[in-house]
Amino acid sequence: MIAIQASAPGKIILMGEHAVLHGCPVIASSIGLYCNVWVRSHRDGLVELKLPDLEIHRFYDLLQLADYTLRVRQAWERYRSDPTSRTFEQVRGMDPDHLVKCAIGEVLLRIPPQDWHGFSLRVRSQIPLDAGFGSSGALAVTLIAALLRLFKRPEAQHPVQSLALTVERYVHGLPSGIDHNTSLRGSVVERRCDDEGGSCLTSWPAESLNLPLHALQIYHTGAARESTGQVIAATRHRLEGSDNPLLASMCRNTERFRSLLHLTRPMPEALKAVLRDYEADLEKLGVVPPAIAQVIRMIEKSGGAAKICGAGALSGDSAGALLVVGTTTLPALAGYRRIDATLGVSGLEISER
Known about the structure:
Layout: E1 3-15, E2 26-41, E3 46-51, E4 56-61, H1 62-81, H2 85-92, H3 98-108, E5 119-125, H4 135-150, H5 160-172, H6 178-185, E6 188-193, E7 199-204, E8 217-220, H7 228-235, H8 245-261, H9 268-285, H10 290-301, E9 305-309, E10 321-325, E11 337-338, E12 349-352
């Protein structure tokens, strides 16, 4: 029987979150926290899900998963025409294994039913949930890659990139695509709109950049109360409209950050300045809870800079990933988990035995 293993890293958005959904560039780095998926075929018509991180062990009929995904597709189409918190709830639902079921269903719906067969699937992930570390993007990439390999679907006909984006939509609504592409490619990735209204991706090996990734400190402030999709649905209107000053500031700061990546010598004070300015933009957007903003003020007072990485949060005392530069450890950071993981690591790896 065929056994597949797939592994992909999480990600951190270095600059450009939220603004990317309105046409601005975004720059992200892979991070050495991994999602691992194991798939083994068997002859019956059932799917066995083992998700020990979520304390889930369930069995599903193949047709049941395909029907579930068709209903989610319909809900997403309604959300696309009316992107609100209410319509997003109908897409995301409350099932903790929602993404896994949708990934399986999307693969099945691209395969003739006579080629379907059962399998067992196990997932273990080091990537924190609802925290800006790209947990769903890495999961979508590993699931899709492993299942396409299991069912012997050629990459040319069923690209992992496009299928993973489809699945991400069922978790985030209208994602930019930077999360799963960074997990897929690894290294540092930029997404930028092109002249034809589409987008292009550029990958840079970490060692080719002037930014010393090892000098960036990453902290986990705790999972956000709201999912990424909920935060985006609640705040996207604040960046809409022509000549939106907040969006213009976020775009400008992302371009400043990009230029710092390619300078011939480090400019630490300029880096701190652009981080402070983008953090101020995120606070105006309303995705940095007061408790996190207070810690960031302490970091700035000590001579450093910090910003939320990812969607942030609308309420509570946690907002996921926090990027810190230019300061020694402060007592205010002692309550957060330091993420000692390498940035700019390689992307998706898959093997078969």
